[in-house]
Amino acid sequence: MIRFGYGTNGFANHRLPDALDVIAGLGYTGVALTLDHHHLDPYAGGLARRVAEVADRLRTLGLGVVVETGARYLLDPRRKHAPTLLDDDRDQRVGFLRTAVAIGADLGAEAVSFWSGVRPAHVPPDLAWDRLVDGCARVLEEARGVPLGFEPEPGMLVDTIAGWHALRRQLGGPDGFGLTLDIGHCRCNEPDPVPDCVTAVGPYLVNVQIDDMRRGTHEHLEFGEGEIDFPPVLRALAGTGYRGLVAVELPRHSHAAPDVAARSLAFLRDAERASARQDGQESEGGRT
CB of 28 within 8 A of CB of 60? Predict the structure, then answer.
């Protein structure tokens, strides 16, 4: 069975312990934990104690965890997602990502996920690329055995799977540099069908986010509101042998988080059952 999780960025109005309790109580087996000012703030006092408390809570609830680093205003209260690895003050982002890796190691995280950022208008493309490669290499130096999942993000410097491959080659193809794949982004931004995207990157997956989306529009939608046919996607994912978390990514749905999370898990389990039925039907057909 696929291990479904839920992202805490979709529980922004909940205290973190409460969010974890709700997510586990609904039947999820993992959580994608976005470090933020209200959810395990890496810049507040007593970090080691707070990390240990969250680790204990995750163990008690039986939740796996990946660490996400996409908080909007954690580093700069005036600039969304800034600074990134591409900005003039990128050292702050590198430091944050290194801290996230350390937190991930202490939590027993299955991956730490991050992205490139949007190229600032005053930074030439070649310089932006060099900064990204340098920043990723510096984070890899501190990975401490925690897999890094780099996410292609629509609108950012690395926005496609092809861009991720180019970045990985530039880094020398290190084992610890994996892929975070957002299923919705495949529909939004990739030329190939979503199941084909999943199959093609199977060997590199360390983290999967899941949501619905429409072609050409980067908007995370509840399941059934976009254009993705999920049973073939889940079938492809199972076929890769991936055993990590598949976490629902709905960062703009915190206003109704418990209900949205409940609907999401019911939908995904139905889709998983439909995928299994398709497998069974094909197996039966092959024997006739």
Answer: no
DSSP string, 242-268: --SEEEE--TT-GGGHHHHHHHHHHHH
> In sequence order, what DSSP letters do the residues of 4-22 get, joined into one string?
EEEEGGG-TTS-HHHHHHH
* Cα 168 → chain centroid: 18
pTM above threshold 0.70? yes
Q: CA-CA distance, 102 to 145, in Å (whole number)?
A: 10
**Secondary structure (3-state) at 19:** helix
Write out pLDDT tens, residues 250-275.
Answer: 999 999 999 999 999 999 999 999 99
d(CA 257, CA 109): 23
* Amino acid in position 222: E
For residue 288, the model assigns a pLDDT of: 43
Token representation of residue 109:
């995280």
